[in-house]
Automatic annotation (TrEMBL):
Keyword 4Fe-4S assigned: yes
Localization: Mitochondrion
Assigned keywords, A-Z: 4Fe-4S, Iron, Iron-sulfur, Metal-binding, Mitochondrion, S-adenosyl-L-methionine, Transferase
Cofactors, names only: [4Fe-4S] cluster
Family the UniProt entry places it in: Belongs to the radical SAM superfamily. Lipoyl synthase family.
Record note on cofactor: Binds 2 [4Fe-4S] clusters per subunit. One cluster is coordinated with 3 cysteines and an exchangeable S-adenosyl-L-methionine.
Biological pathway: Protein modification; protein lipoylation via endogenous pathway; protein N(6)-(lipoyl)lysine from octanoyl-[acyl-carrier-protein]: step 2/2
Cited InterPro entries: Aldolase_TIM, Elp3/MiaA/NifB-like_rSAM, LIAS_N, Lipoyl_synth, rSAM, rSAM_sf
Keyword S-adenosyl-L-methionine applies: yes
Residues of the signal peptide: none
Biased composition (Basic residues): 94-104
Positions of [4Fe-4S] cluster 2 binding: C164, C168, C171
Species, as recorded: Hondaea fermentalgiana
Identification of the protein by name: Lipoyl synthase, mitochondrial
């Protein structure tokens, strides 16, 4: 453009000079033309200098942004490298240098009325000889969940015994190839106890029982059916209150669709099955009989067969996963129509379990929550102390399910 402008100005000047020479124009006229050319050249030079200056500023800003981005990437890489080197010694389960626990994992103690409610629920559980994941898995939120008033407290009951046939490397539950036989009275006892507590929402989970023909699916279903029955009777007797909502956190039943259908069709409200970690780490973290794709298929099948059921899964972070892998796990879960996903910090139960590779910051958990919400999950719980059965999430699900049930009754 600058070259074209110069040519446009030069052409009339040349023509004027030629005409002046032929017609005998005076010297002042020629000087005027030369001054115009000189001014035009100066303007072009100033415009070019300004353009070059802006370009230089743009290049400088882009260069600075690249420097800052590279610095941030280096800091993230350094953090991952530092945490990994501290947490592991050559890939074994033992680590000589324990990662210091960050301040955000500090848990407030239960006190006052919450303490009384917690102790009441604890004594009831122990008095009936029932097992809870809250205690067995040493959940950090037990005080918060058990400390609520009647109708507000939540608990996770573990049925089918306290011994699992699988040996996941993150889990503290006892393992055996031949656990004790099931207690045929357990579905009735659990249902009666939970109903008497007056809980508004309960989570039933279980160990894996691969040695049984039905892998415990009928036992699971009976417990749900008794819970619904006794809860309805309690509401009718009192002529007030709400029937209990039941979430089942189930094994994968080795992908057997008939067994999955037995549990999913038992009258429960939320079907949960934990994918636990990203696909790459699954063989290292979970028992060899579990599988990332198998777990996805369980959840996909339930949503397809029982579209009104809420489906849910949970992912532990801090095992060595990358951010891209976490996001891909979200995508995989949304593709099968999953409704609810939770993210929590992996905490090593004992020195014999997988080491912690990194403590994920609350800010990073918040980012994962935002991404998951943008993907369309109905509910996302994401934080260092979040667990698959978490009071805040259960209260939200209870509200959501009751609202939907009331809407359907009015139709």
């Amino acid at each position: 453009m600058l070259v074209a402008r110069r040519l446009a100005l030069a052409r009339p000047a040349t023509a004027v000079r030629a005409a002046g020479s032929a017609r005998g124009l005076s010297s002042p006229t020629q000087q005027q033309q030369q001054q115009q050319l000189q001014q035009a050249a100066e303007q072009d030079g100033a415009a070019a200098a300004a353009s070059n200056s802006r370009l230089a500023q743009l290049r400088e800003r882009l260069a600075q942004e690249r420097v800052e981005e590279n610095a941030q990437q280096a800091l993230r890489a350094a953090r991952v490298s530092q945490n990994s080197s501290k947490a592991s010694t050559g890939g074994g389960l033992r680590n000589k240098k324990k990662l210091p626990k960050p301040r955000w994992l500090k848990i407030d103690s239960t006190s006052g009325e919450s303490r009384e409610n917690y102790e009441r629920l604890r004594d009831t559980v122990r008095g009936l000889g029932l097992a809870t994941v809250c205690e067995e898995a040493r959940c950090p939120n037990i005080g918060e969940c058990w400390g609520g008033k009647e109708g507000a407290a939540t608990a996770t009951i573990m049925i089918m015994g306290d011994t699992c046939t699988r040996a996941c490397r993150f889990c503290s539950i006892k393992t055996s190839r031949a656990p004790p036989p099931l207690d045929p009275e357990e579905p009735h006892k659990v249902a009666r106890a939970v109903t008497d507590w007056g809980l508004g929402y309960v989570v039933l989970t279980s160990v894996d029982r691969d040695e049984l023909d039905d892998q415990g699916s009928n036992h699971f279903a009976k417990t749900v059916q008794y819970l619904k029955k006794y809860s309805a009777e309690r509401v009718a007797e009192r002529k007030s209150g709400k029937e209990i909502l039941v979430e089942c956190l189930t094994p994968d039943f080795r992908g057997d669709k008939d067994l999955i259908r037995t549990v999913a069709g038992s009258g429960l409200d939320v079907f949960a099955h934990n994918i636990e970690t990203v696909e790459r780490l699954t063989p290292h973290v979970r028992d060899r009989r579990a599988g990332y794709r198998q777990s996805l298929e369980v959840l996909r099948f339930v949503k397809e067969e029982f579209p009104r059921l809420v489906t849910k899964t949970s992912v532990m972070l801090g095992l060595g996963e990358t951010q891209d892998e976490v996001v891909q796990t979200m995508r995989d879960c949304r593709e099968i129509g999953l409704d609810v996903i939770t993210f929590g910090q992996y905490l090593r139960p004992t020195k014999g379990h997988l080491p912690i590779k990194a403590y994920v910051s609350p800010e990073e958990f918040a980012t994962y929550k935002e991404i998951a919400q943008e993907m369309g999950f109905k509910f996302v719980a994401s934080g260092p102390l979040v667990r698959s059965s978490y009071k805040a999430g259960e209260l939200f699900l209870e509200s959501m399910i009751r609202s939907e049930n009331n809407y359907l009754k009015q139709q």
